[in-house]
Design goal:
Layout: E1 4-9, H1 16-28, E2 31-37, H2 48-59, E3 68-73, H3 77-84, E4 88-92, H4 96-112, E5 117-121, H5 132-140, H6 151-164
Parallel strand pairs: 1-2, 1-4, 2-3, 4-5
Length: 166
């Protein structure tokens, strides 16, 4: 039975790895809710509304984009999942170090909300090295982001970094 899944993350910025996991999640679930986590204590390149807009642009023209909803949240993830009617959390895992952290989070979420499961998806092997922090570093130094993020995200990153430099 397919149902609603929640795909949470900071998505600052939304990478090709995120997009790959999202696309595959739509094959597993009737509806996927991408949930942009906003942490006011964490320094971000894009604010919540900008991240949502960039993700929405990734969905334009895709045959599966209509089954994706994008929300923003602060607080406990399981509380947001309950509010949205989701019974599954989707987490991307690229390497062992990701799994250790995500496994602890999944156990914590299971303790807080026993009826919500977590599934781990790995991105395509060619995308496993991509992380938002790596993308920000490459962007900061003016590197080619073509294989890391969608074109419109690359453009937005360059504009944002250009406008923030002294």
């Amino acid at each position: 039975m397919k149902h609603i899944a929640l795909y949470p993350g900071s998505f600052d910025p939304f990478t090709n790895g995120h997009l790959d996991i999202l696309k595959r999640a739509t094959n597993l679930f009737e509806k996927v809710i991408v949930t942009v986590a906003v942490n006011n204590e964490k320094e971000s390149i894009f604010n919540g509304k900008e991240r949502i807009r960039l993700i929405e642009e990734c969905l334009t023209g895709t045959p599966w984009g209509a089954r994706v909803k994008i929300t923003q949240f602060t607080g406990l993830l399981v509380d947001h999942a309950k509010k949205m009617g989701a019974h599954t959390l989707i987490r991307g895992v690229r390497q062992i170090s990701d799994f250790e952290y995500e496994f602890r989070m999944a156990l914590t979420n299971k303790r807080l909300a026993p009826n919500i499961d977590t599934i781990f998806l790995m991105p395509d092997e060619q995308l496993t090295f991509i992380s938002a922090s790596l993308v920000k570093e490459v962007a900061f130094w003016g590197g080619d982001l073509n294989s890391f993020v969608p074109k419109h995200v690359e453009k937005a990153l360059k504009e944002k970094l250009q406008n923030s430099s002294p």
